[in-house]
Amino acid sequence: MRGILLDIEGTTTPISFVYEVLFPFARARAREHLRTENLNPLKQEYDEDVRQGQNPPPWSDEPIEYVHWLMDQDRKSTALKALQGKIWLDGYNHGELRGEVFPDVPPALKRWRDEHLDVRIFSSGSELAQRLLFSTTRFGDLTAQLNGFFDTTIGAKTARESYERIASAFQCEAPDIVFISDVTIELDAAEGAGMQTLLCIRPGNRPQPPHHHSVISDFVDLRR
Q1: pLDDT value at position 66?
Q2: What is the C-alpha to C-alpha distance for residues 81 and 87, in angstroms, rounded to an integer?
Q3: Alpha-carbon gap, residue 211 to 191, rounded angstroms
Q4: Reduced to 3 states, what is the DSSP secondary structure of residue 134?
Q5: Where are the domains positioned within the chain?
Q6: Which of 49, 93, 176, 186 is deepest in the core (most CB within 10 A)?
C-alpha cells in the first residue's frame, strides 16, 4: 500500500453532519446565492433532465424549485455541488459552520503522512467544500495531511473510469492504492480500476447489500 483514497460522508465525517448541518444550511440560503450565480451549468443539467424525461419543475430566472428538486433527490449534480460549496464558504468564513471528522481521522492522517503514504480525497462534494471541511475542524486544519482532492468533475463515483483517472494522479499504480468508502457500489467501481477496497462502517451509515469487500470501522486498524 502506497496510496489511500478517502470518501468523506460516512467515512471521515458523520453522515449526520452532512444531512443535518450542511444540507439544511445550503437549502436555506440557496435563493439569495442564485441571484448572483452563473446559471449556465444548472441550465445545462436541467435541459439534460428534460431530455431524459426526468420531469423537473419548470425553469425560471431564479430556479430555486429546480435546485430544491435536485436536493430532494440527493442528486450528485456537479452544478448543485458547486453552488453548495459557495454557500458553505460563506458559512465557514462567518463562523457559522465548522468541519467535522471522526476522532480517529486526525491521528491517522498524521501517521499515514509520517509513513510517506499519499492520501487524497474523492467526494461528490466540490473540491472547495472538501477543503473547507478539512481546514476548519476542531482538531485544526487537516489539509496539510492531504495531497489532493477529487470531485465529480473527474467523473461519477460509481464509474470505473473515474478511479482510473484518479489513479493516474497518484505517484503509484492502482493496485497500490486503497479506496475507503461507506458505499459498496463505489468500491466495486474502484476495484474495477484495480484499486484495493475497504468498506467503512461508522455510526449512522446506511446498510449495504451483500458484498465481498473487507471492512474497517476505525482508521487505527489501517497501517502500512
Answers
A1: 96
A2: 10
A3: 12
A4: helix
A5: 3-14+100-221, 18-93
A6: 186
Instruction: Read off φ and ψ for residue 33, nearest 5 degrees.
Output: -75, -30
Q: What are phi and psi of 200, to 5 degrees?
A: -90, 125
124 touches 79 (CB < 8 A): no
* DSSP code for 221: G
To the nearest 5 percent, what fractions of the chain are helix, strand and coil? Answer: 50, 15, 40
DSSP helix/strand/coil, 8: coil
Task: Dihedral sign for Cα 173, 174, 178, 181, please.
Answer: positive
pLDDT tens digits for range 145-156: 999 999 999 999
% of the chain at pLDDT higher than 70: 100
The arrangement of secondary structure in 3-14+100-221, i.e. its CATH architecture, is 3-Layer(aba) Sandwich (3.40)
What is the pTM (predicted TM-score) of this model? 0.90
Q: Cell triple for residue 220?
A: 487505527
Strands 118-122, 148-150: pairing kind: parallel
